[in-house]
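Entry type: protein chain
Record version: 2
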Amino acid sequence: MKNLPFFNRRTLYFVFALVLLVMSCREDDPAPSVAGSPHAKVNSWILEEMQFWYLWNDQLPVDPDKTAEPEIFFKSLLSSQDRFSWIQDDYQDLLNSLQGISKESGYEFVLYRENEGSSNVIAQILYIKSGSPAEQAGLKRGDVITHVNGERLTTSNYQAALKLIREDHTIQYKPLIIGEGKFDTERTLSVGAVQYSENPNYLSRVIVAGDKKVGYYVYNFFASGTDGKADAYDKEMESVFAGFKAQAITDLVLDLRFNSGSSEKAATKLASLIGNGVNDSKIFAKRVYNSKVQNEIINDPKLGSDFLTTRFNNEPANIGSLLTGGRVYVLTSSRTASASELVINALKPFMEVFLIGDITYGKNVGSISLHAENDPDNKWGLQPIVVKVFNSLDQSDYSNGFIPNVLHKDNSLYLYPLGDQREALLAQALGQITGTATSGRQAPQRGVKEVIGHSLDEKRRSFELVIDQRVLPRQGD
C-alpha cells in the first residue's frame, strides 16, 4: 500500500485516537547529540515532540537522561496520570494496522483460564474473518484452542505462544457442537497466515421479532476504506443503513463488542447514520489540548476555534427517526473502546443509548502518532496522549468506561453464531425490544470462565481513533 500523505516541518498530518491520532512526518534538522550516546538524536527528537504535543507537557522532567534507550527515555517522560502513551521502533506497521491490514490467520479470540485454580489457558474463537485462512481451514466461532505448535497454553507461556499465530502454525482445538452444548474430541489443524485486509462491516441483517423489525449490525473497527479505495467501507456502511431504512426497521442493535476503535471519520459517519435529528449543524465532538497546542490552533487563521469541533454529517440514509422511543441498543465488551466510546458519548445528547454487555474500556483522551519520515536514522514512532474529548454537552465522564444498562460479561463457552437470535447479547437486546427480557440488571449466564486476555489487545489499531486529515502549523514557524 502507499504511505499516507505527509508534510514538512511547517505542517502535521492529523489523526485522532480515542483517541486522537496525529500522523506527522517532518523533515527536521539533525538533533544535537550527547557525547558518546547513540540514542541522543532520537531522544532529543522525542523530547521536542513531547514538549509541544503532550497533554501533560507541564509535568515533563527538567533534565531527562538522553543517553537511555529510546523506549526507556520515553517512559521516563510520562505523567503518573497517563496510562495510554506508547512508543514503537517501526511506525510503518501502525499505518497498515489502522486500515485493518496485518499478517494474520483471520480469527479473533478471548483467553480464559481453563478451570478455577488451573494454570492451563484456552483460547476461544470469537469470530472468523471472511476469506481468511481460518475460514478456509474450517474454524468457527466457539471453537476452543488448547495448543499452538504443539505447546500447551498456560498462564506462564500463552503470551509468547500466541505470537506464533502471526505466521503459519498448527493448533490443537476442540470444535464446539453448539446444538448439543458440548465440545467434540480434540483435533490438530494447520493454519496459514497471510497479509490480510479486514473489512470492518462484518454482518448486517433485519430480524423480525414479533411486530418489530430489528436492524442488526456488527461493526468490528472504524475504517473508512483502504489505500486506493479511501471510502469503500464507509460506502458499504451507508448501503447497510439505506437497506435498513428501505425495510423500515423499528429498532437497531449495534454490535460493538469487538470494536476497539480507529478512524474518527468512520465514527462520525456511523453516528450520523444513527443519531435522531442530527445534521451538519450539530456537534459530534469537542477536543481540548494543552494550552500551547490549543493557542496555536485558535490563533491560526486557517484553523481557528472551529478546528476544535467536529460536526455530524448530513446522511440521507439516517434511520434515527425510525427507532422506537428514539433508542439505539449497543452491545459492548471490556474491549469496546476509543472510537466506539466516542460514538456512544456523541449520541447520548440526541437519543437514548441502551448498553448491553460488559463495562467498556474507558478512554476519553486521545493520542497522536509522530515520526520523522525522511530520517533514515530515526524509524521510531511516538503515540503520546495529546487531547481530551467531549460531546456537545461538554460531557467526558467515561474514563472508567460506560456501565451497561444490562450487565452481561458474555464469557460463556457456549457461543451461538453472531446474528443467531439465541446468541447471548443479541437475545438480551431482542428481549428488551419485544418486552420479554429477563428482569434485573445482571443477565443470567451459563458456563462462564475467567477472562485473562484478548487477541484485540495486540492490535495497533485497538484503542485508537483516527481523525480527518488537517494541516496544522507548527509552533514558532
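Comment: The radius of gyration is 23 Å.
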